[in-house]
């Protein structure tokens, strides 16, 4: 049994990690989350009644607060997922991305380092600071090639630049101070509990409701999609068995053009919710002006984590996407509360002091 401190645990990937830690392990979990618009305690309801689970509302950029939370909880693993994560929002307002992704990671590293230095040598050796990052730090690929652990950094959006900066700080805290860090760079995730501002959940919900399905440019951009539970499993595996200082690239071997993703969702929704009013959902596709600096293609060579940690994705894109559409159809209450803003009303009083 280990003590996991998970920052950003109320977000899309963080909540999947926490639900999996509750379901499949005997580890203790403390979620630390600021509850921005992307944080949703509804996504943690399946974990909330477990005595191994606790929640603390805090900003990772608040060094004093993070220091006292870490000292009081005494974690074996800090899994750092808290971030501003939406590329479009980073283009409209980069400041918040620097504050949380760069300053926040620095503050958390400093708090973790102060705590780690006070541990016994045995606990020091077992401790991990696991930084969760993205393949977007590597920039854009052409028609061929794959990102891997040694690929040069070339971020192109304010979001990916802020994540790249945070990766460099984490690596430096390992090399300079000896903090046992791990960095994982993952491709695009999709799955249940995904905030409907991102391509896949937005398309699913708009297709269900017969609303226009916006596609950037000609929909030619390629992403390598990974089902969120496959990512969560890789993260837990890396946190438990990854070697200090290592970097692991994680991807699903599922390259798809955005337009093909949208068409596949349309076909699935047509099959699962036939509706004579809208006709085939493909008719709702609407091409919109491309995002500035839109990277063409991301794809991951995940052979290191497959070889070293024995990880493999379970879902194919087709099986994962079907599960995802079925989840949104069966969990209308979750996304209706997101769309209405109702999920934000329950925030006060939810924090459990430690
Ligand atoms: P998300 O936006 O769904 O969740 C982010 C969470 O962080 C939210 O709960 C939010 O409330 C919290 N948060 C934001 N600022 C905070 C702060 N200052 N202090 C404490 N909590 C704060 O993001 P996600 O999609 O779950 O991504 C999680 C991590 O994984 C991020 O670091 C992201 O860069 C990385 N990542 C995401 C993807 C993807 O496809 N979504 C792919 C690779 C890597």
TrEMBL record:
<dbReference type="GO" id="GO:0008460">
    <property type="term" value="F:dTDP-glucose 4,6-dehydratase activity"/>
</dbReference>
<dbReference type="Pfam" id="PF16363">
    <property type="entry name" value="GDP_Man_Dehyd"/>
</dbReference>
<keyword id="KW-0456">Lyase</keyword>
<dbReference type="InterPro" id="IPR016040">
    <property type="entry name" value="NAD(P)-bd_dom"/>
</dbReference>
<protein>
    <recommendedName>
        <fullName>dTDP-glucose 4,6-dehydratase</fullName>
        <ecNumber>4.2.1.46</ecNumber>
    </recommendedName>
</protein>
<feature type="domain" description="NAD(P)-binding">
    <location>
        <begin position="5"/>
        <end position="324"/>
    </location>
</feature>
<dbReference type="InterPro" id="IPR036291">
    <property type="entry name" value="NAD(P)-bd_dom_sf"/>
</dbReference>
<keyword id="KW-0520">NAD</keyword>
<dbReference type="GO" id="GO:0009225">
    <property type="term" value="P:nucleotide-sugar metabolic process"/>
</dbReference>
<dbReference type="InterPro" id="IPR005888">
    <property type="entry name" value="dTDP_Gluc_deHydtase"/>
</dbReference>
<comment type="similarity">
    <text>Belongs to the NAD(P)-dependent epimerase/dehydratase family. dTDP-glucose dehydratase subfamily.</text>
</comment>
